[in-house]
Amino acid sequence: MSLSLLGLSLIFSIGLCVHAVRTGQNYFWLWIILLFQPLGGIVYLIAIVAPSFMGGPTARKAGAAARATLDPTRDYRQAREAAELTPTVHNRMRLAEAAGELGRWDEAEAQYRTAAQGVHAEDTALMAGLAKALVELGRYEDALPILQKLGQAGDPGHTPQLGLLFARTYEGLGRMTDADRYYSTAGMRVPGLEGLGRYAAFLARNGRGEEARAMLADIDQRLSRTNPRFQKEGRMWRDLAAGALGQAR
Questions:
Q1: Which of 65, 97, 112 is the last residue of a domain?
Q2: Are residues 60 and 80 in the same domain?
Q3: Contact by Cβ (8 Å): 201, 220
Q4: What is the pLDDT of residue 248?
């Protein structure tokens, strides 16, 4: 790199460092910008600077994806700080959601329970979040009464996501007929490939390999047409179904 280009790269990097400090970004960005010139600065532009100037959803999604890859605990840290500073129901719910995204379901359950007190005890969003945390923890007997209460609440109680939680709960409790009924309905309605992947895995675990293989083929076709941004998540559910089929052989 010539001296002139080196100088321009340094000026570019210093300017981005000033932006990072003034806008309160995490200090690891300073290391990325300075140690990996100019690539680190370009990544910072895409992840942090560009979304603030380009208000469209595509730019926001690109920035969020880059931030999530480089700093996966960022949302959690911000949510925890907000909840500690101002422990409102909204902030506790935000922290519970962020904890769940990281697989910290014990913490998510605790935050949902704390938030669902008093006038918020019947809040359907909090109840649904608590039920999901309990299902993820494998505490199906605790989750079922909450799900049944949500099921009686009408919209937003009746949703594909709620149906999938019912299916997983009934399977966990050994009530396979009820689980199949909910999987067959929710599996086709849940956005993305989670519903289909979980249903195919359920079929494989219950000796219905032919149906599971047909559903896996459908998943493969859908995955081939999926936007590249969502293929990583889609492959995760495809692999769940394939893994269950492999174990059932």
A1: 65
A2: no
A3: no
A4: 61
Give the least confident one: 56-70, 153-167, 184-198. 56-70
Do 7 and 52 have their domain in common?
yes
Residue 59 lies in a domain: yes
Residue 236, pLDDT > 80, answer yes
Q: Can you read off the two tokens belonging to residue 201?
A: 């895995």
- Domain assignment of residue 216, yes or no: no
The C-alpha atoms of residue 175 and residue 196 are separated, in whole angstroms, by: 19
Q: What's the number of domains the chain is made of?
A: 2
Transcribe 128-149 into DSSP letters: HHHHHHHHHTT-HHHHHHHHHH
Find the mean pLDDT for residues 172-179.
96
Rg of the chain over Cα atoms, rounded to whole angstroms, equals 22
Domain span holding position 41: 3-65
For 169, counting Cβ atoms within 10 Å of its Cβ (0-12 exposed, 13-18 middle, 19+ buried), the class is buried
Question: Considering the entire predicted model, what is its pTM?
Answer: 0.71
Residue 44 lies in a domain: yes
- Domain presence at residue 106: yes
Residue the block writes with tokens 């559910």: 237
Contacts (Cβ under 8 Å, ≥6 apart) of 200: 212, 215, 216, 219, 240, 241, 244, 245
- Are 61 and 86 contained in the same domain? no
User: 132: closest CA among 190, 204, 67?
Assistant: 190
